[in-house]
Structure formats: structure tokens, C-alpha cells
Design brief:
Helices cover 40% and strands 20% of the residues. By secondary structure, the protein is α+β, with helices and mostly antiparallel strands. The chain folds into 5 domains: 234 residues, tricorn interacting facor f3 domain (Immunoglobulin-like, Sandwich), CATH 2.60.40.1730; 98 residues, Neutral Protease Domain 2 (Neutral Protease, domain 2, Orthogonal Bundle), CATH 1.10.390.10; 141 residues, Neutral Protease, domain 2; 136 residues, Immunoglobulin-like, CATH 2.60.40; 259 residues, Zincin-like fold, CATH 1.25.50.20. β18 and β19 form a beta hairpin. The radius of gyration is 29 Å and the shape is globular.
Length: 924
């Protein structure tokens, strides 16, 4: 998924407001919330005074004797004179609050009771509170949309509590381990609709406010505070309940309800699939999914009330590409998978966030594949997870999947590629080496055992070990904890070195951590991962068997134990380890094996190698060439086979790597060589796919549409054949349309390419035309495409103007989308220096613009990190970081990774540039 000032107002009581004596980052465990009754009155009528007020009634069980009640509260006005505390079991007794303390570091609100709360008793604590509906996209906040016909602004309220923002909305025990049922009652003007986690139980008039109502919702199942959700809005909805399924509704602003059809159809289907997959019925009576105009994260899995950015829930067949549609399906599948993994069973503490996010990412791949097998999405998403992990986790500054968490900002930083994509990749690995029956029965046992409770990764390992031993999927002397702890508790992943003897029949296998920074000595690259070793040979080419033929083990002290593989074919036949990239490791072969693989790829039956392994070979060889452990001549010889390749996955692996090399080389005198090379590489596939001509409707395989979309983008970047003239012609045809906001003749799948190419090669007038279309568009995915394209211009003044528009709160670009504008400018060769200068000079204002969502600042650094290639520029940026202090606080992990990426670019330029240029000349 995707932090303020602490207010306590004493009214009528002379309560001491001492600094807190309790300073541990976790809540005390003396008290346990048993049930919340929340009443929240929301005012949306006056745009100048959008606010809410409420009362939290919390039933508490005392597990130990205590005088202190410590909970979370942040930016709430609390009327201390109206706080009550009563013992409600046995003989009812009134207590009182003698004083309060705050700890602003940990957002603690500490109430000191007049009399000791005694273990075994039940108490009721009642706290009134109020606050403004903030603009910060967290807690209980405001969002808006416009009615184009009248230019009227409509306001709604919505929540975003993960990871630690429920405390911004009501006083609570805001940690995942404090689960409790909630009874929520929302008060609002009767012209609005109220939504929450559960169905409405009763609507009744407000006692004193005319035209206001109270909407009381049914009591929820026990859940963590970060999953509580509610909204007051005037949205429309589309019902789509399946037989015997939960009530299912998809909500959006009224003028976008026609874009809900796909999500409304897909959502119930994937929910039903999960019921079958997990063997556990969805436990709530309904699901609402809501498209929110202002939303910081991609989506949020609130139990029964799932919230989304508009780009991840709304789909328009007229404006959205196939890639948009598949991304939407993946996000919906991800959030609904959380209803079991995360909501039903929740991690005990944020250390194991990956149990939520890794599982939802992986299981979403299975769900989308089940419902749309024609997309072939499972292989593509699995490869994407692996490629993302290979890149991020090759940094020394990466972190373990399961990591200690002591501050809220550290929780926020954990919502990254390691928790999501690496988590997904290691779960896929486990699924493949355990087999279907053991994996699913272990998961089902885990979910049943810990339903409505909290768990940690060791609990999952225990369930899976039992299932594996029962089914014979794992040797009795092996256990999942030993294997998987090596993947979740240490940073990085291994490269295995495969060296065959002269006969070729015996191979020695060793492993070490793979790092992009080759200046790190070998003794600091040690590490040991338990590796299920699967492989196939040129003779058998059996890529379907991913079960391990052997294991690389670790000693009890964590040392790597080398492995010898015997009975391989002769030295004239290749061997490929890791069929279908079943496990997260890279493979470097000896020279002879690479030579045999290159011969098959370039001259032989290259399709006899599984498509995932062709992608693996491309990705591995380009990584090894980058780090200097292979020669670029060998790497370019291998990827030269791509002129024969007609599948998406190997091209995806190649382009991901060549993009990074291209961003360095385009700043050098030899870019013309690289451009010629890319032309030669891309031309055959571009011609095969008929350029950017609109042949999409005649393409039977859906992933070929994605391939054509991707190739067209690269072809226009490197001016292959007629790509640019065709793109310009498409755009001019659109400009000539009598009503360009209603009619767009550009094929949806290549709009990003056409827009960018035209803005890059066209006129100022073309830029203005596109900017006008952005302001008038009603489709979020189209707006996003335009934002990513406006930065393609080479006009400095337009780029400068666009940077300023992106961070102007009075402009039409929503805060959540401002990063897109900056990234678009920073990614171009002309815009890079402008964006870097703008960021450095305006970092204080940018910090204020995003605060408290500082994670957004980190997103601005990625395109900058990829283009610093000189040591002096790296040192300058380090100096800037050192002097920016508060403005870059909260993104320390991102900063360290940014600096390391810059360093590896500098190393590449110093070590590889001349050799790379010579190798390019040879293949041309």
C-alpha cells in the first residue's frame, strides 16, 4: 500500500500534561481491546469546514493490574472532560482519569486511572474526539471530483489506515496484534451514502441535526485497526453478486460508473476462486470495492470495503489498453487475496508484512491465470516478480524479507519490492518444490488454525512442514523453516557457478551472494541459501519437471556446502539449471556451456528451450556482463538470437537490461553505435508485428498484443523504420478530429508511444493539445498515459513548466500523480538535468508538498539514480543528501539504494564502456 502533530485539549479538567515516561515503541500488553463502538459524524456540506467528530467506546479486558491505559492518537482533539472509565463486569464501578501524558514520537496517548484496573475485569473507556478531514491521503480524509457540465466540486470522505493511520481517525490500539470486533455508526447528510466494512443494520434520523441520519453497521468479525474502513459519498454502484456468493458491489463517482463493468465482473469470480483455492468460504456477507479519486496507494484491502485508485479499478474499452486491463485484474486479485492472507490471518507485527504482501502478490497471479488463461499472465507476472527482485536485491543496501521494525517510518519503507515481488518469488519457489497438494493443504491448515488471529512466519513454516512430510514432498530430515529462513532472514540471493569437468559429465556447484557492486570483496559476498536444484539437458530438454533433483544445503553455522552433480551428458551438450526459473538464483556456466547455449539459440532449435529459460539466459548474461564476470562480446552474441525471438518474455528481460545501459551510453559519444545496434536488433520483430499499424484485433494470442505494444515503444525510441512518421500521422489525425475528447483514432495499445513520440518530435502546439486533453479526460488510465507522455518533449521551457505544474497544489494534477510528471521529465535525456536541478533546489518545498507521505519523495529519486554516471556527479549528490537533513528524513533506505545505483553506474562506465563499445562495433 500503500505520517502529524498531536493535540489533546483539556476542557474543564485541570489534567497534567507531562511528557511521557513510557517510551517503548510497542504498546503495553496489560490491556486488551475486546470491542469498539465508534460513532462518527461527518460534515461535507461546507467546503471551507470539512470535519468530523465522534465517540470511541472501547471495551477493555485487564490482563494485568495497571493504572495506565496506553493507546494511540494523532492529530485528534480530545475533550478530556468527557472521558469516562467504568468497570462493566460484576458490580459496575465508576473509575476516572487523574492525568494524561503524550508521547509524540510513538503517537501514544496515556491515561492514568484514579484507581487501579485489576486483572480479570472488563472496563469501558469512552473518548470523544474531533478533527478536520485532512488533505494528506491518510487517516480519515477528504477527496473530491468535479461535475464537468457545471464545474461543481463534489466532496467525499474516505479512510486509509494502513499501516498506522487509524490513530488519525479515532483513539485506538493501533497495532495489528490487537484485533477486536467493531460496531461502526456513521452520521451524515441524508443525500449521501455511508459505507463501512459490514452491511448496514439500521438507518435512523439524527436526534438534533435536520436532514442528517445515523447509519449503523453490523458488528464486524475481529480485525486489526488498519483494516477498519468507512466512507461518506454520493457515488453510484454496480451490483454483480454470483450465486451463493457474498453481496458484491463496485462503486465510483456517478460520471464514471460506466467504467466499472470489468471490475464488477472480475471481482466476484476471483473471490469465488479463492474460496475454492483456500478451502475457506469468504467470511463476510458483502464486498464493496470503491474507486477513490484521491488515493496515495494503489489499493487497500480493508475487509469488506476495498479501496482503489481510479487507475486500478476503472476500465474503459475505448481508452484503456490491454496492459491497463490486466494490471487492473492483477490489483483486484491482489486485494481480494488479502481477505484471507492478511485479514483473516494477520501478521503479529510488521516484521512479517511480507506474509500479507508476498502471498497476495503470488496468489493474485494464480487467480488471474485461472479466470483469464488466454492472457498467459502467470508466467509473465512470475518473471516480472523475479526480474524486479534480481534488480533490487542485488544491492548491498537491500534488506531481508522479514525485517525488524521499530518506527512507523520503517513500516512504510517495508512496502517495497522485497516484501511484494521477492516475497511472491520465494512462495512460488516453495509451491514448485513442494507440489500442489502439500502447498495447498499446508496453507489451508495455517489459515484454519489462525483464523481471526495473528501469526508469524514460523507458524506458516510449521503447517507447511507437516503437510510436506505427510505427502512425502520433503525428506523427513528437512524442514521448511531451515530452508525458508535462509530466504527470508538474510538479504540478497545467490549466483550459482556451474563448472563441468572435461568430460562434461560431472559439474561442481558453488554459490555466493550476487551483488552489482563488484568492488565488494568475495569474503563479504558470502551467504548460504538452501537451493532446490533442478536442471535439464540438451538431450532430454524436460523443462516441465521443476521438482528438485538435488539440494544445496547449508551447514548448521550457515556455511555453504558445495555440491557435485554427476551423470550429466557429454561436453558436447549443454545443461540448463533452474527450469522455468523455479528458484530465485542466477546461473553462471563455464565457457563451453555458454558456447553450446549460444549455438542453440542463434543457429539451432532455440524454441526447444523453455521461454522462461530463454528469458533467464538473456537476463543472466547481461547481468554478468554488467558486473564484469562475463565478456560483453559473449553477452551480445547470445542476445543477438532475439532477432529470431517472437515471444514476449525474453524481449522483456532484454529491454529491462538494455534500458539501463542505454541511459548511460546516450550521454556518451558512442550513442550512435548503440542506436544502430538497437535498430538492427529490433527491426525483425518490428516488421514481424507489422510496426505500429492497427492489427491488434487480428492478433489471437493476447501476450502478442503486449509484445507489439512494447516493441513499438522501443522502435519509436530508436527511430526504427517508419515508427516515428506513423506515430505523428496518428496524432495529427486525432488533432483533426472535430471532437478529440470524444473520438480518438489512435489504437489504445500504442497511445503512450504515439503521444510520447509526437511530443518529442512535434511542436509546442502538440504539447498544448495533449495537456488540454488531460484536463478534459474523464478516464484515469488515459490521464495517467498523458502525464507520462508530456515529459517527452525536448523543449526546455516546456519541461520546466511541466515540473512546476506537477507540484502546484492549485493545478489539476492530483498529488498522487505528481510523481508521474517528475519521473517523465527526469527519464528523458534533456529533462534529466533539469529535473535533478529542480529537485535539489526545491527539496524543502517538495517535502512540504508531500508531508507526511514522504515515501512519494523516494519515487522521484529512481529516474535520477539511473542516469548519474560520473564520480563527480555522484559526490555532488552525496553532498546534497548530507545537507538536506529534514527534507529527506523518512526515506533513508531509498537514499542508500539511490546512491548505490549511482555508484554501480559509475563503475560500469569506468570498467565496461570501452569494451562495450568495441563489442557493439564487432556485432554491427
Amino acid at each position: 500500500m500503500n505520517w502529524c502533530l498531536f493535540f489533546v485539549v483539556a476542557l474543564g479538567l485541570d489534567l497534567a500534561m507531562a511528557g511521557s515516561t513510557y517510551d517503548y515503541y510497542r504498546l503495553p500488553t496489560a490491556l486488551l481491546p475486546k470491542k469498539y463502538n465508534l460513532r462518527i459524524l461527518t460534515h461535507l456540506e461546507n467546503p471551507e469546514d470539512l470535519k468530523f467528530s465522534g465517540v470511541a467506546q472501547i471495551k477493555l479486558e485487564a490482563l494485568q493490574n495497571t493504572r495506565n491505559i496506553t493507546l494511540h492518537s494523532k492529530s485528534l482533539l480530545i475533550d478530556d472532560s468527557k472521558i469516562t472509565l467504568t468497570q462493566v463486569n460484576g458490580e459496575k464501578k465508576d473509575n476516572c482519569i487523574s492525568s494524561t501524558e503524550v508521547n509524540a514520537v510513538h503517537d501514544f496517548y496515556i491515561l492514568n486511572a484514579c484507581q487501579e484496573l485489576e486483572a480479570g475485569n472488563i472496563y469501558q473507556l469512552t473518548l470523544p474526539f474531533e478533527a478536520e478531514l485532512n488533505k494528506q491521503l491518510q487517516g480519515y480524509y477528504r477527496s473530491s471530483y468535479q461535475i464537468p457540465e457545471t464545474n461543481e466540486t463534489k466532496w467525499i470522505s474516505i479512510t486509509q489506515f494502513e499501516p498506522a493511520s487509524a490513530r488519525l481517525a479515532f483513539p485506538c490500539f493501533d497495532e495489528p496484534g490487537f484485533k477486536a470486533p467493531f460496531v461502526i455508526t456513521l452520521g451524515f447528510h441524508k443525500k449521501f451514502t455511508g459505507l463501512s466494512n459490514m452491511p448496514v443494520r439500521e438507518i435512523r434520523p439524527h436526534e438534533t441535526l435536520p436532514d442528517y441520519v445515523w447509519s449503523e453497521f453490523e458488528e464486524s468479525v475481529p480485525m486489526s485497526t488498519y483494516l477498519v474502513a468507512y466512507s461518506v459519498n454520493d457515488f453510484s454502484h454496480k451490483p454483480s453478486t454470483l450465486p451463493n456468493g457474498a453481496l458484491f458491489r463496485t462503486w465510483a463517482r456517478p460520471n464514471a460508473i460506466d467504467q466499472c463493468d470489468f471490475a464488477a465482473e472480475f471481482g466476484p469470480k476471483v473471490l469465488q476462486y479463492y474460496e475454492e483455492f483456500f478451502g475457506i468460504k469468504f467470511p463476510l456477507p458483502k464486498v464493496d470495492q470503491v474507486a477513490v479519486p484521491d488515493f496515495a496507494a494503489g489499493a487497500m484491502e480493508n475487509w469488506g470495503l476495498v479501496t482503489y485508485r481510479e487507475t486500478t479499478l476503472l476500465y474503459s474499452a475505448e481508452y484503456s489498453s490491454l496492459a491497463n486491463q490486466q494490471q487492473l485484474a492483477n490489483v483486484v486479485a491482489h486485494e481480494l487475496a488479502h481477505q484471507w492472507f492478511g485479514n483473516l490471518v494477520t501478521m503479529k507485527w510488521w516484521t512479517d508484512l511480507w506474509l500479507n504482501e508476498g502471498f497476495a502478490t503470488y496468489v493474485a497471479n494464480l487467480g488471474v491465470e485461472h479466470i483469464h488463461p488466454e492472457w498467459r499472465a502467470k508466467e509473465r507476472e512470475s518473471l516480472n516478480d523475479l526480474l524486479t527482485t534480481f534488480r533490487r536485491d542485488a544491492l548491498e543496501s537491500s534488506h531481508p524479507i522479514s525485517r525488524p521494525i521499530q518506527m512507523v517510518v520503517e513500516i512504510s519503507e517495508s512496502f517495497d519490492e522485497i516484501s511484494y515481488e521477492k516475497g511472491s518469488s520465494v512462495l512460488r519457489m516453495m509451491h514448485l518444490f513442494l507440489g500442489e497438494e502439500s502447498f495447498r493443504s499446508g496453507i489451508k491448515s495455517y489459515l484454519q488454525t489462525f483464523a481471526y488471529k495473528n501469526a508469524e512466519q514460523d507458524n506458516l513454516w510449521e503447517s507447511l512442514t507437516q503437510a510436506a512430510h505427510k505427502n512425502g514432498a520433503l525428506p523427513e530430515n528437512y524442514d521448511i523453516k531451515s530452508i525458508m529462513d535462509s530466504w527470508t532472514l538474510q538479504t540478497g540471493y545467490p549466483v550459482i557457478n556451474v563448472t563441468r569437468d572435461e568430460s562434461g559429465k560431472v559439474a561442481k556447484i558453488s554459490q555466493e551472494r550476487f551483488l552489482l557492486n563488484r568492488d565488494i570483496p568475495h569474503d563479504q559476498r558470502k551467504g548460504c541459501w538452501w537451493l532446490p536444484l533442478s536442471y535439464t539437458t540438451q538431450e532430454e530438454h524436460d523443462f516441465n519437471n521443476t521438482l528438485p533433483k538435488a539440494w544445496m544445503e547449508c551447514s548448521k553455522s550457515g556455511e555453504s556446502l558445495s555440491k557435485t552433480i554427476e551423470d550429466l551428458p557429454g561436453a558436447d551438450q549443454w545443461v540448463i539449471f533452474n527450469p522455468q526459473l523455479a528458484t530465485l538464483y542466477k546461473v553462471n556456466y563455464d565457457a563451453q556451456n555458454w558456447k553450446l547455449l549460444i549455438e542453440t539459440l542463434t543457429k539451432g532449435d532455440f524454441e526447444s528451450i523453455h521461454v522462461l529459460n530463454r528469458a533467464q539466459l538473456v537476463d543472466d548474461i547481461l547481468y554478468f556482463a554488467w558486473t564484469g564476470s562475463q565478456d560483453y562480446e559473449i553477452a551480445l552474441s547470445l542476445i543477438g538470437y532475439l532477432q529470431r525471438e517472437r515471444e514476449f518474455l525474453p524481449w522483456k528481460a532484454a529491454f529491462d537490461n538494455l534500458k539501463l545501459v542505454g541511459r548511460i551510453v546516450r550521454q556518451t559519444p558512442h550513442f550512435d553505435l548503440f542506436k544502430s545496434y538497437m535498430n538492427k536488433l529490433i527491426t525483425p520483430i518490428f516488421e514481424h508485428l507489422d510496426g505500429i499499424n492497427d492489427t491488434f484485433s487480428s492478433i489471437e494470442q493476447q501476450d502478442q498484443i503486449l509484445l507489439k505494444t512494447m516493441v513499438a515503444n522501443w522502435a519509436c525510441q530508436y527511430e526504427v523504420l517508419d515508427c516515428i512518421p506513423k506515430a505523428l500521422a496518428y496524432f495529427q489525425s486525432w488533432k483533426s478530429s472535430p471532437n478529440p475528447d470524444e473520438t480518438n483514432p489512435i489504437p489504445t495499445n500504442v497511445r503512450r508511444t504515439v503521444y510520447c513520440s509526437t511530443v518529442r518530435h512535434g511542436s509546442d502546439e502538440d504539447w498544448e493539445f495533449l495537456w488540454t486533453r488531460y484536463k478534459k479526460s474523464n478516464v484515469a488510465s488515459e490521464k495517467r498515459t498523458i502525464l507520462s507522455s508530456l515529459g517527452c518533449t525536448r523543449e526546455v521551457w516546456l519541461l520546466q513548466r511541466y515540473l512546476e505544474l506537477s507540484f502546484d497544489p492549485k493545478e489539476v494534477i492530483r498529488k498522487q500523480d505528481s510523481t508521474l510528471g517528475f519521473q517523465a521529465v527526469a527519464s528523458s535525456e534533456v529533462g534529466f538535468l533539469l529535473a535533478k536541478k529542480y529537485f535539489i533546489e526545491n527539496v524543502d518545498q517538495i517535502h512540504k508538498f508531500y508531508h507526511p507521505l514522504v515515501k512519494s519523495i523516494g519515487r522521484l529519486l529512481s529516474p535520477l539514480s539511473e542516469q548519474v554516471i560520473e564520480r563527480k556527479d555522484l559526490e555532488e549528490f552525496k553532498e546534497f543528501i548530507n545537507h538536506s537533513g529534514e527534507s529527506l528524513s523518512g526515506i533513508n533506505q531509498t537514499i542508500q539504494q539511490t546512491l548505490e545505483i549511482m555508484l554501480t553506474n559509475v563503475q560500469w562506465k569506468e570498467r565496461n564502456y570501452d569494451q562495450f563499445s568495441r563489442s557493439i562495433e564487432l556485432v554491427l
